[in-house]
Amino acid sequence: MSNVTLDADKAGWMHDLRSLIERRVGLRVADHQREQLARIAAEACGRFGYADPPELLRALSTAPDDAPVVEHLIANVTIGESHFFRDRAQMAFLEQEFLPDLIARRQSSSRTLRIWSAAASEGQELYSVAIMLDELIDRPDDWNLHLLGTDLNVEALRRATEGVYSNWSLRGLSNIRRLHYFDSTGKHDTRQVKAWMRTRARFIYQNLAADTFPSMLNDLHAMDLVLCRNVFIYFDAVRVREILQRIVATLAPGGVLLLGASDLVNPQIPGLDIEMRPGMCFYRKPLQHASPQTPTPKRPNKPAVPGSLGGARHAAGLPSGSRPVAKASRPAVADRHADFLATLQEQVAAQRWQEIAEFAEREADRFATSSEASLAVARALGNLGQQDAALRWCERALPLAATDPDAHFLHALLLQEASRVEEALKAFRRAIFLQPDFVLAHYQYALLQLGAGRREGGLRSLYNVRNLLAAAPADRALQGAEHMSCGRLAQIIDNELSLHHESRPG
Ligand SMILES: C[S@@+](CC[C@H](N)C(=O)[O-])C[C@H]1O[C@@H](n2cnc3c(N)ncnc32)[C@H](O)[C@@H]1O
Predict the structure, then answer these.
(1) 90 lines ligand 1 (CB under 6 A)
(2) Which domain of life is it from (predicted)?
């Protein structure tokens, strides 16, 4: 450990370090946390071999987001205190009202639930919901339960995946639950979530301050429930508004958002209705979510699902704004078709999924004859959480798009959503066959295999992605998911490999 003299109040670097952290990850270090930050900086100097905090600061200012020193600092600055069944009033609402209603509605339809613990810390929140679902659902294994926990603290994610907790973390749990859902670890003060329960939850990296959701690629879309609790304290008001906007877009119609009691946000969240219950409030997205009345952006937004307009991959997408629409021999028909595509293109760019679904209903025939339009509807419906209908539209488009890797990739994602694992694997293989360097298809294929317990194949596919990425510059945007750099995905894969106790590929 370096021997740095620290006087947090006087040190000029403190101000710069705080702004750097805020700029990089959107985290605001409060005044009362300066001493703590000073200690963290001193510890990081020792660990990474910097003479003093100014030298550390210089290194940080040029290091990429996934550099070990950056990740180490973030892991230490973010305080991940959490425990099981935190906030009794909210847990009672979930257990007694929201989840039973949702389960009853889905029982006779898709039997799919999508739940996101944003800022999941070490997973206590998500496993609490998993426990409730296990108790409320008759045969949970017959359901598609998508339970996703995200955080930017990689160490916390690793612990969440391992599921080992101290008695202190388990303080909100009855003895019956402790025994039923946890194994002894051999130590008197910790217990581990049982293996079958751990497979129901998935934990991945996600910086809430980054513009990377909603997206079907990381499964962050069409959520029935989002828990985003006790994290907004770290952000300023502007950042909170931006994140909330993206969360609203990530909720399915009828979906609910829970915030933490300490998250003092403006009680009015545009696009959500607030509802009160004893000791708590929650936010619900109306069933018929009005399309935002924002003007169509000049540049298309990033699509929430892969391969659509505006992305680098045009194969399956509609023509981008800059691409001329092909001239047809019958100008009037061609003009009408161009108008039709232009309208659709505008809706996709503005992510007006509900409007696209309604458009497709009105103009079903016209949509059905265009694979591009059908795929756009499939993506829109996927983003609205209507997976069955999305799959039907995608399969309608496939005969017309048989050689299009994006179409097969979308098909695979939708099959995966429907827990049709074998068919999804086949569709991923088809996408990879059509485009061998399709990184995201390899990656999703790997995760699906690992999730299905096919460790060997899954790891092989992860290495394939890692090798493909090794040839690309770290800062290059990933084809099909422009918000993600090749370097970032490589880092995520290295984490994934280390979770599977594998050494990094040479
Ligand atoms: C106090 S814990 C909250 C845990 C849990 N949600 C709860 O309420 O018990 C705050 C978590 O937010 C995470 N966090 C902070 N900034 C974040 C960001 N920009 N993106 C994602 N997670 C973030 C921290 O790593 C930490 O795990």
Answers:
(1) no
(2) Bacteria
Nearest protein Cα to ligand 1, atom 3: 230
For the Cβ of 411 lying below 6 angstroms from any atom of ligand 1, the answer is no
* Residue 442, helix vs strand vs coil: helix
CATH number for the domain spanning 177: value is: 3.40.50.150
Would you say the CB of residue 439 lies under 6 angstroms from ligand 1?
Answer: no
pLDDT in tens, 226-279: 999 988 877 888 888 999 999 999 999 899 999 987 676 677 899 999 998 888
Burial 47-58 (b: 16+ CB within 10 A, else e): ebebebbbbbbe
Instruction: Enter the tokens of residue 198.
Output: 């751990």
**Which amino acid, one-letter code, is at 297?**
P
- Residue 253 falls inside a structural domain: yes
Assess whether 62 and 177 both reside in one domain.
Answer: no
Strand pairing category for 190-193 and 164-166:
antiparallel
**455 located within any domain:** no
153 lines ligand 1 (CB under 6 A): yes
Where does residue 33 rank: exposed (0-12), middle (13-18), buried (19+ CB within 10 A)?
middle
Identify the three-state secondary structure at position 213.
coil
Q: Which residue has the higher pLDDT, 366 or 138?
A: 138
- State which of 58, 77, 96 marks the end of a domain: 77
Which range of residues forms the domain containing residue 37?
A: 12-77
Task: Examine the domain organization and report whether 150 and 211 are in the same domain.
Answer: yes
CB atoms within 10 A of CB 278: 7
Ligand 1 atom having least distance to the Cα of 82: 9
Q: Looking at the structure, tell me whether residues 329 and 233 fall in a common domain.
A: no
Residue (of 260, 259, 82) closest to 171 by Cα position: 82
Q: Is the CB of 376 under 6 A from ligand 1?
A: no
Same domain, 221 and 97: yes
Of the three residues 228, 263, 284, the one that is the final residue of a domain is 284
Residues 279 and 309 placed together within one structural domain of the fold: no
Structural domain contains residue 52:
yes
How many domains is the chain partitioned into structurally? Answer: 3
What pLDDT is stored for residue 294 in this prediction? 32
The rounded mean pLDDT for the chain is 81
**Ligand 1 contact, 156 CB (< 6 A):** yes
Q: Tell me: pLDDT of 329 over 60.
A: no
- Distance in Å, CA 125 to ligand 1 centroid: 11
